[in-house]
Amino acid sequence: MAVKTIHVSDISGKEADEQTLGRLVVHEHPEYSDLPVTLEALPEEVEQLQATNARFVTVEWIRPGARKGERITVAIEDFNLLAGPGVMDNAIQDALISKHRNRSRSGDGARTTNATTTRAGRAKVNYATLEHAGEPHRGRITEAEKELVRTHLDEINQRLAERGMREIDPGDPTMKERYGL
């Protein structure tokens, strides 16, 4: 029995050799928070992107065979025009689902944004930043994280709510002690 692997562009669905597909890494998108995700794409599908100041998507285009990518910010409308109506949203959602499946299989729930990679290959999140302060985690709460939570409580609670995480309740005795509220 033989197994045949067919590679297709996540954007157009066109079949392609693995060597001709590049990687389009979506770093920032106004409608998705659990990024980055990587889409496979053909060079001609990505070359039409131009930078803009409208609602934007930040992507990194890694050409076939290249080691480093080119990071560009484009209007969300231009990004969505890379494929048919609704196709880009479906491609990103599929990539997010795949990312979560892989994360749960490996047992690594660490975020990769604003993180450094440890020797074991897992990402280490810096909770002493506005991007991650107040998020639930196993480690100890540093003074820097406590200060950020005390200073930016409303902003942090808004971010936590948007990400579907528990908010910090200053009336809760546990939270009060944990963050020095």
Short synopsis of the structure:
The protein is built from six helices and eight strands. It is of the alpha+beta class and 181 residues long.
Tell me about this structure.
By secondary structure, the chain is of the alpha+beta class. Helices cover 30% and strands 19% of the residues. The chain is built from six helices and eight strands. It has a four-stranded antiparallel sheet. The protein has a two-stranded antiparallel ribbon with strand order 1-2. A hairpin with a 6-residue loop joins β1 (7-8) and β2 (15-16). It starts with 6 loop residues before the first strand and ends with a helix.
Give the percentage of residues in beta strands.
Answer: 15-25%
- What structural class should be given to the helix and strand makeup? alpha+beta
Query: End-to-end distance, in Å?
Result: 64 Å
**Low-pLDDT segments:** 108-113
Main sheet specs: 4 strands, antiparallel
Dominant shape: elongated
Helix count, per DSSP?
6
> What is the CA-atom radius of gyration, in angstroms?
20 Å
Mean pLDDT: 80
- How many DSSP E strands? 8
- N-to-C order of helices and strands: EEEEHEEHHEEHHH
Give the strand order of the largest sheet, numbering strands 1, 2, ... along the chain. 4-3-5-6
Helix content: 25-40%
Oligomer class: single chain
